[in-house]
Amino acid sequence: MSYVQKYTRNEYAFTPKAALDFAFLIEKQAEQVYEKFGIRFPVIASSTMHFIGLAKEASLADVAKALEIPHQLAAQRIKLLLELEMIQSRADELDKRRTLYSFTKIGKRQYLLLDRYLESADKVFLKLNESIGTNLLDSLLAAKRAFIDISLEERILNEE
User: Fold this and answer.
1) What is the pLDDT at residue 108?
2) 13, 98, 129, 154: which could join 92 in a potential S-S bond, CB 3.0 to 4.6 Å?
3) In a 3-state reduction of DSSP, which class is residue 59?
């Protein structure tokens, strides 16, 4: 039995590791599906592509706020999508300091492929919920909200 199997099973303090391990596993498996679907951007950029697809046009600040990620991480994803020619940029006519991003023709086609993947993945995760007997997404979101309301630090220090 490996260290991970032995200790993460009974040590609830390793819950974040289990969540991250699950995320990495799904990301790796999704990469293979993306390849078969013809999706040519990394899995990690999917939420950015999805948001831009829904918004039609968005600034870096819009992306960071909508995805609840740091500005720097949003900038890295935008840069990647620009390099892959999935999105294009233009200066905001109302505020020249602001840059707006939208899909290129390639990006629009890739967005449609992503949308098809998401429909399939939705069904898979619904079946997963049934098989494990819980709504995993609801549980993860509830856990996130709980730690936003009362941080890990507060919880640990109040235990003592």
Assistant:
1) 98
2) 98
3) strand
Burial class (CB in 10 A: 0-12, 13-18, 19+), 47: middle
Helix (H, G, I), strand (E, B) or coil at 138: helix
Contact 43, 27 (CB under 8 A): yes
Q: For strand 87-91 and strand 58-59, is the pairing parallel, antiparallel, or unpaired?
A: unpaired
Q: Which of 65, 128, 58, 69 has the alpha carbon at shortest distance from 92?
A: 58
Mean pLDDT taken over the chain = 94
Condensed to tens digits (0 to 9), the pLDDT of residues 146-158 reads: 999 999 999 999 9
Alpha-carbon distance of 79 to 86, in angstroms, equals: 10
Domains of the chain: 3-159 (1.10.10.10)
Q: How confident is the model at residue 13 (pLDDT cuts 50, 70, 90)?
A: confident
Amino acid in position 70? P
Give the whole-angstrom CA distance, residue 5 versus residue 1.
Answer: 6
Instruction: Please state, in angstroms and rounded to a whole number, the distance separating the CA atoms of residues 84 and 78.
Output: 10
Could you tell me the strand order of the sheet in which 87-91 lies? 58-59, 99-103, 87-91
pLDDT tens for each residue of 92-147 = 998 888 999 999 999 999 999 999 999 999 999 999 999 999 999 999 999 999 99
